[in-house]
Specification:
Length: 235
């Protein structure tokens, strides 16, 4: 079996999947990895909606802008911020629950990031390919497709299946622009390293689409806020 380092080193996003189903034992292993991930206070304020139904996967693919691999992958994991179950457990225990706020959302986002990464590593260790899907950018439509209850919020999805392609790995930021030894980050120095590296070609295109005024990240923020309000968050 490949080492953890080998799995990380060869990771690529897979957007073409074979139709082979994922055996129940493998699926449970992947979910077990997410379950075992670190979580603030150990509360795990999230749920994982396992989507195997072909029709639901097709509707999700449409909801996130026609990304066909959501429908093609035999399993799609939707990681959802979920305080509804925790607040209900408080009531059952005779405790008074509070509102769910921005702070609650931030904590669940961090926990989901960790849990989904652990699931990804275990899936790829088992020989599956994965690709992350930004559910937050189509938050309201995804919530409707999944019939999500109050005090939840769709965050990211993970399409999983046997890969039908093997793309090359893509460059990342230089390590020196990412990790700072015993000092705070230096924006100018980091920018120089980014511009002077092979990462720059990817960065230039992505930055125009995401970081420019009125671009993707600003639109995502508005979508998340509206979705959160509809689902009972106090943000």
């Amino acid at each position: 079996m490949a080492s953890c380092r080998d799995v990380i080193a060869r990771h690529v996003s897979i957007r073409r999947f074979k139709p082979d189903p994922i055996p129940e034992d493998d699926l449970r292993e992947i979910l077990w990895a997410a379950q075992r991930a670190p979580s603030a206070w150990g509360l795990q304020p999230f749920s994982v909606v396992v989507v195997r139904d072909e029709g639901t996967r097709a509707r999700l693919a449409e909801a996130v802008g026609g990304q066909r691999y959501v429908a093609e992958a035999p399993v799609f994991l939707a990681f959802v911020a979920d305080y509804g179950k925790l607040l209900e457990a408080m009531r059952m225990a005779g405790l008074e629950p509070g509102e769910v706020t921005l702070g609650h959302l931030v904590i669940s986002l961090v926990d989901i990031g960790i849990a989904s990464a652990w699931a990804t590593i275990r899936a790829e260790e088992l020989g599956y390919g994965t690709v992350y899907i930004a559910l937050y950018s189509s938050c309201r439509r995804v919530a409707e497709v999944l019939s999500l209850p109050p005090r939840t919020l769709p965050v990211v999805g993970l399409a999983i299946g046997k890969p039908a392609e093997q793309p090359a790995t893509r460059p990342r930021q230089p390590l020196e622009a990412l990790a700072w030894m015993d000092t705070a980050p230096d924006a100018k120095r980091a920018a120089e390293l980014i511009i002077g590296s092979e990462f720059n070609q990817k960065f230039s295109r992505a930055a125009r689409l995401t970081l420019a005024p009125g671009a993707y990240y600003e639109k995502v923020g508005a979508e998340i806020m509206e979705c959160a309000k509809r689902l009972g968050w106090r943000i």
